[in-house]
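Field reference: sequence -> structure
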Amino acid sequence: MIPPGIPDWFTRRRVLEAGRIQLSGRAWSGNAPIERVDVGIDGAWHGAALGPPAGPFAWRPWSFEWDATVGEHELSCRATDASGNTQPLDAPWNYQGHGNNAVQRVSVTVR
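Structure field:
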């Protein structure tokens, strides 16, 4: 996900104005083509619109229109490929951090 708004470097939050916001990004899987992307708004999942793939194993663009309301929010996104693999909510721990494919989360303050 391309984080929306302006970064606040001290809190690592993003800050943006209330209103309709287009969230977007790219999804990829090393196993099969991307079939679905879900965007989480405060824990509730919504289907994103998928753009055309550049090839069978290429990044696939996605977008989602969010009506941002004043307050603190957590945005997230997860992809599912044609083999049924969906990004896990949390990365399984390992010593060197290899294979970290967990759901991306972005904290946002809407003014």
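Note: Residues 21 and 66 are 5 Å apart (CA to CA).
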